[in-house]
Predict the 3D structure of the following.
Amino acid sequence: MSMSITSRAKRMVFLVHRWTGVSMCVLMALWFVSGMVMLFVGYPKLTPWERLGGLPSLPSSICCISMEAALAQSQAPGEVKGIALTSIGGRPHYVLTEGHGDRFAVDAATGARLAIGPAQALAAARSFMHGAGGEYAGVVDEDRWTHSRSLNPHRPLHVVDMRDAASTRLYVSSATGQVVLDAPRAERLWNFAGAWLHWLYMFRNRPTDPVWSWTVIVLSGVGVVAAFTGALNGLWRWRFSGAYKSGSKSPFREAYLRWHHILGLVFGTVLLTWIFSGLMSMNPLGVFDAKGARPDVAAFEGGSPSAVRLPVGVPQVLAMLSAQGFRASELEWRVLAGQAYILARDGRGQTRLVVADGDAYAVREQWPEQVLVEAARRLVPAPMSGYALLRDYDAYYFQRQVQSMYGADERRLPVLRVAFSDPGATWVHLDGYTGQVVSSLDRSGRIGRWLFNFLHSWDLPGMLGARWVREAALLVLGLGGVLLSSTAVVLGTRRVRKSTGKMPKRI
């Protein structure tokens, strides 16, 4: 008698699971192992707190040349879109961002444009590590730890290996001389079993690499098929009522087959959701891209700092801040809705605003809520549907631990969330402490937040708050995934040997 359509369909699902499982079992096991490592050790990054903690307070006694003198070093002074005063190699420097994105540094004492060579890179690294010794290790455009697109304006990168207790490797910008990444030796070693392996960075050659992207997308897609067909097979073969002749609810007598079946039923849902959410993390075919125009940050600011800035000298600004007990390590000239201000940061990442106050100047901690609301109207060419001041983290605005891929994102509270009635129903979060757009999400981005971030990381604020419970649960589930994948490796190896005639046909 010929097989029924249902039997044929089940047979096809079984065969698809067999061969997709054979092709993916090793990689799935490695993904689970590397994911557990990433719970505790993240990909190398320089957080804002690490960067600012490596800077000295700005010295008002020897600072600084006029802003006009610093801007004169630009090819197009009127188009400079970023101005900051910070320390490089222990000395104050202006860091300017040209209109086309290039950056350079100007010595704030002499007005000379900084040229970055091995000596300057080594000096910057030693200053950042507070005098620790180090050795210059050459120049790289990109290596396994520097794939981030945020490093693009600083390439190529000078590499300095420090002789501190952690054997830290520092990467120094060839454009500005700033330290832009730190990677302690232990972090680098763990990452071979963590993020570097998890993200298949051995196949990535540059910050934007479509070959790598599609490699991960295709492999993740095959993994989803393997997990889904495995779940169907496992459910079909399990006797929910009654038992097989052996007395077991699983039809398999051989130990690895039986355990693979049982482990699949227990951990299969986790396997499927983690592989699927990993696929979603790659944003295949741009499914989570904003469907309309992105918020217009230039309109929100209403001018460039090179054209609109407070007519006040650096010594006066530093004196005002010092009078309030604030020791600034960095100043940044910014504009909000056409109003110039200076954003000051100290070594702990705290901020202050220096703003015009009538005919004088004042130091504030935050922008008034109404100022932010009025500025926000410039962001999206659609009516504002509402706004709220968030005093607690929620599902769309939260702080991740430093080892997370989002661990360097600053997420202060309170924050203003503004909603618009544009086709994408865009939400924008505004930081009143800095006057900056922190994040924006339209409807597609919010869906992506659930299909990737939540399913992959279990990152609701309540879960993140119960840190040890969350990590313990993820470890247990990760170990279950390793066991499930390991049984698949054994079965897959047997199947390949059997198919190639390299083992006796026993099953």
